[in-house]
Write a structure and sequence with these properties.
four-stranded antiparallel β-sheet; 4 helices; elongated
């Protein structure tokens, strides 16, 4: 069985047991990775083409080494002007050993992340504060009534530390929140 995978913006035809060189990946040597971008599965007279990827197919690979490719010379030259520039470049790569190609039937299911319900957020505008006080609070990244109450629980100094927020603004906020 073989697969065409996409890693680092390039496509590679792989089968189990092969090693390939891909663009440098930020993984340590010996770590395993699962490649979900499987564009095509083939072998045993069957061919499965993804749109754009094959659903449920993954390729498991292990990082065997990191290295640098052979040096290439970039030479720029303009005739009759004395312009010459010589640069060298060595591309960094990661060598991967393909361990297995898993299809939908063989691939273990991933746990779905639990959905966390967001608490209802009440905007500051519903409090009826003056425009100046509301703008000062927004400037301090306080955008909801809940965030304002949390700041007040820290103490009056937490709000008085906001630039331009004085005792009159603090009194106004406390008065409105007591309602």
């Amino acid at each position: 069985m073989y697969a065409v995978i996409e890693v680092g913006g390039k496509q590679y035809r792989v089968s189990e047991g092969e090693t390939i060189e891909v663009e440098r990946l930020p993984l340590e040597v010996g770590k395993s990775l699962s490649i979900d971008r499987v564009l095509l599965l083939g072998g045993d007279g069957q061919l499965k083409v993804g749109t754009p990827t094959v659903k449920g197919a993954r390729v498991k690979a292990r990082v065997t080494e990191h290295g640098r490719g052979r040096k290439i010379i970039v030479f720029k030259f303009r005739p009759r002007s004395g312009y010459k520039r010589k640069h060298g470049h060595r591309q960094e790569y990661t060598r991967l050993a393909i361990e297995s190609i898993l299809t939908k039937k063989e691939a273990p299911k991933r746990a779905k992340p639990k959905r966390v319900r967001k608490k209802k957020v009440t905007p500051l505008e519903e409090l009826g504060l003056s425009a100046r006080t509301t703008n000062l609070l927004r400037g301090a990244k306080i955008t909801s009534v809940e965030a304002l109450r949390a700041r007040l629980e820290e103490g009056d100094e937490a709000l008085l530390g906001v630039s331009g927020f004085g005792p009159k603004s603090l009194e106004e906020v406390k008065k409105v929140l007591k309602r």
